[in-house]
Automatic annotation (TrEMBL):
Record flagged with keyword Secreted: no
Keywords on record: Oxidoreductase
InterPro entries recorded: Ald_DH/histidinol_DH, Ald_DH_C, Ald_DH_CS_CYS, Ald_DH_CS_GLU, Ald_DH_N, Aldehyde_DH_dom
Enzyme Commission code: 1.2.1.3
Family indicated by similarity: Belongs to the aldehyde dehydrogenase family.
Protein name: aldehyde dehydrogenase (NAD(+))
GO MF annotation terms: aldehyde dehydrogenase (NAD+) activity
Catalytic activity entry: an aldehyde + NAD(+) + H2O = a carboxylate + NADH + 2 H(+)
Active site (catalytic residues): 280
GO biological process annotation, one example: reciprocal meiotic recombination
Length: 542
């Protein structure tokens, strides 16, 4: 309610068209005991279940190569006319989506929770708030980012003027991950259609159940505003079929959100058609806590807990490591232990005063063995496991996918758990002797997505900001991605390219350089001097 009130009061435009979308109906009560079978080849349909409870949600028919061909053709037809729309028309669509999201945020959040296992608070922060912010930023500032931009000239070409225009690419594609089923689906659509493109979104098979409803929210806005809803298409396929989409000659650009191994396959596939891609991959984000942060530890601990355990740690820019300097290390670990022990796991959708929930489920049980082995190996090599460390069988939801909130300290940079992405509810704490060593530890893994630094504003903080090798850094906070006006992406093995911000919008355009006569309107045009005309003028009379 507070989110709706804030944005409703601050919204400036009344250029909104109202519409309704049919909300998916839950099937009869049924649970799936073995949730590990959601993989290619086991069925002609994709079975969908609620990770928090094992409740059966439905069956989704995976789309074929022929379905992908049809989706691209339909989007291309719609894009031909959409590319001619004004920014005012595009803003109306985004504002209408924003209004729908705000007025239906609870049902959107509940559906995201059912399909991903997260809590309602996690959905409000990571699904609703960020999506509304991106919609708002795009319709308020997107036009400025895509207006023709003037470029300076030089003395030699003083009679010319230069500028860049940003033209739609056509139909683009986005392959999205399951950890934020609403935001990851809607986010690429917002940028693509505002830049004048059509888009095909390949939703994850893990969250296939919610994808159709979330897509229909955009289609409904397009239709009620007088545009063809076929501009936006969603496909759900088995991974092997996705190769057909990424190598398709009808796709002009690919945005990929996912893991490093799959990114290599996507890049190789897209290369067949020389299709450019933006790859947003995983991270091993470090939170560096300087000695100067000692008096601010109570606030910092709250941020660390949110940054580590939001979405059960399944957050590409979540805090994967806490690197603490000597004077704050002991106090930090002592304060974290009771707080993490107190975290309650379960399904937020059946939470009551008797069974309150802080953290939800993981998407599946596939990574449990890997996480347990990382923790066991670290303990064997000298780390101390203070909280958790194992999979958890929930007494109310025995078919849910739960892992204990975990705290492991005295971790050293040679341990696998300090270098491999966990993507789970694990707080890893490392000790550094000084700022330089903290930066070295932070930069050791091959990832470079995000990072954060906590301390008194000054030279030390600035040193960390400059030394950290990452695409994003937050100072005295985490998750720079909430600032949707900034470009989002990483370096090294965390991917390349950027989405979000003006850089993300322009990345979905053909940047056309234009050079023309400055005084052409007066009939003054470029002419070739006699001395360089063909055939070349003979100055010696030969």
């Amino acid at each position: 309610m507070s989110t709706w009130l804030f944005y409703s009061l601050s919204r400036k435009s009344k250029n909104v068209a109202k519409y309704d979308v049919r909300v998916p109906i839950l099937p009869a009560d049924k649970e799936i005991a073995d949730t590990s079978f959601k993989k290619e080849g086991c069925s002609t349909e994709i079975p969908c279940y609620a990770p928090a409870t094992g409740a059966f949600l439905g069956l989704i028919r995976p789309q074929t190569n022929e379905d992908i061909d049809l989706a691209i053709v339909e989007s291309q037809k719609a894009q031909n006319s959409w590319a001619q729309t004004s920014f005012k028309q595009r803003k109306q669509v985004l504002q209408s989506i924003e209004t729908y999201v705000l007025e239906h945020q609870e049902e959107i959040s509940r559906i995201a929770c059912l399909d991903s296992g997260k809590t309602m608070i996690d959905a409000t922060l990571g699904e609703i708030l960020v999506t509304v912010e991106k919609l708002r930023w795009t319709y308020l500032h997107g036009e400025k980012a895509l207006r023709p931009s003037k470029r300076p000239t030089n003395l030699l070409m003083a009679y010319k003027k230069n500028y860049v225009i940003y033209e739609p690419l056509g139909v683009v594609a986005a392959l999205i991950s399951w950890n934020y089923p609403f935001h990851n689906l809607i986010g690429p659509i917002i940028s693509a259609i505002f830049a004048g493109n059509g888009i095909i979104v390949k939703a994850s098979e893990h969250t296939a159940w919610s994808a159709a409803y979330f897509t229909q929210i955009v289609k409904g806005a397009l239709e009620v505003c007088g545009h063809c809803p076929n501009l936006v298409q969603t496909v759900v396929t088995w991974p092997q079929t996705a190769n057909y989409l990424t190598s398709h000659s009808g796709i002009s650009h690919v945005t990929f959100i996912g893991s490093r191994p799959v990114a290599k396959l996507v890049a190789a596939s897209a290369a067949k058609s020389l299709t450019p891609i933006v790859a947003e991959l995983g991270g091993k984000d470090a939170a560096i806590i300087l000695d100067s942060a000692k008096t601010d530890l109570p606030r910092i601990i709250e941020i660390i807990l949110r940054g580590t355990f939001q979405a059960a740690g399944q957050n590409c820019i979540g805090i994967e490591r806490c690197i603490a300097c000597p004077n704050v290390y002991n106090e930090l670990t002592s304060a974290l232990e009771p707080r993490i022990k107190a975290i309650r796991v379960g399904s937020t959708l059946d939470a009551s005063k008797k069974h309150q929930v802080d953290m939800g489920a993981m998407i599946s049980n596939v990574s449990f063995e890997r996480l347990e082995k990382l923790i066991e190996a670290a303990v064997h090599d000298g780390a101390r496991l203070l909280v958790g460390g194992h999979r958890f069988r929930h007494p109310l939801h025995p078919n849910g996918n739960y892992f204990e909130p975990t705290l492991i300290v005295d971790v050293t940079p040679d341990m696998a758990i300090s270098n491999e992405e966990c993507f789970g509810p694990i707080c890893v704490v490392m000790r550094a002797r000084d700022v330089e060593e903290a930066c070295n530890y932070a930069n050791q893994p091959s990832f470079g997505l995000g990072a954060s630094v906590f301390g008194a504003e000054g030279v030390e903080v600035e040193t960390v900001v400059r030394k950290i090798k990452s695409g994003m850094v937050a100072v005295n906070d985490f998750a720079a991605y909430y600032a949707v006006q900034l470009p989002f992406g990483g370096v090294a093995k965390s991917g390349y390219g950027r989405f979000a911000g003006k850089e993300g919008l322009r990345g979905l355009c053909n940047l056309k350089a234009v050079c023309r006569d400055r005084w052409g309107w007066l009939g003054i045009h470029t002419s070739i001097p006699n001395t360089i005309r063909y055939p070349v003028y003979d100055t010696e009379g030969i």
